[in-house]
Amino acid sequence: MSPEAAREELSRRADAIEGGYEMMLAYAAQGLASDQGAANSAQLRDHLKRFDAALTGLAQTYRDCAAALGVGPTDAVDAFLKTVEADAATTQAALRLVLGQPGISSQMIDNVNASIHVRALLTDVFIIDEVLKSSRS
């Protein structure tokens, strides 16, 4: 993967992750008992699905980008990306559990937002993004 292609893919994934998280924050604030019949139900589920999809293979995409940019030390990058894999998998499990429900309440989404796993994933993404950015300087 070329550095440009890796950056584009990471940007697409980051947009989906951030967009999903922002949508969850907005939805949680609405105090809805269910998304059934809610005006933004399809939008919520679409954002959650894109968030979920962005997490599939996320660590490998970071690995490819780090390799293309020559970011190291490789053992440290690899160790950190194992954490990204675990946090992404746990976050995906929560997203998929919520998506599988017939109705999604604001409280349910607020609990996902508060999950230490989601917050860890977001922090992981911020850290590795900064490392990759600093390698381009």
What are its keywords?
Four Helix Bundle (Hemerythrin (Met), subunit A); mainly alpha; 137 residues; 80% helix
What does this structure look like?
The chain is mostly helical and 137 residues long. The protein has a single domain (3-136), classed as Four Helix Bundle (Hemerythrin (Met), subunit A). Helices cover 80% and strands 0% of the residues. The chain is built from six helices and no strands. The protein has helices spanning 3-28, 41-55, 58-69, 74-99, 106-114, 116-136. The longest helix has 26 residues, at 3-28. The chain is elongated and about 50 Å long. It starts with a helix and ends with a helix. The model has no long low-confidence stretch (mean pLDDT 91).
| CATH-scheme architecture | Up-down Bundle
Helical segment tally? 6
**What characterizes the major β-sheet?**
none
Secondary-structure-based class equals mainly alpha
Fold-level CATH name: Four Helix Bundle (Hemerythrin (Met), subunit A)
Low-confidence stretches: none
Provide the residue-averaged pLDDT: 91
Give the proportion of residues in helices: over 70%
Strand content: under 5%
Apparent shape:
elongated
Order of helices and strands: HHHHHH
Q: What's the CATH first level?
A: Mainly Alpha
- The first-to-last residue Cα distance is 20 Å
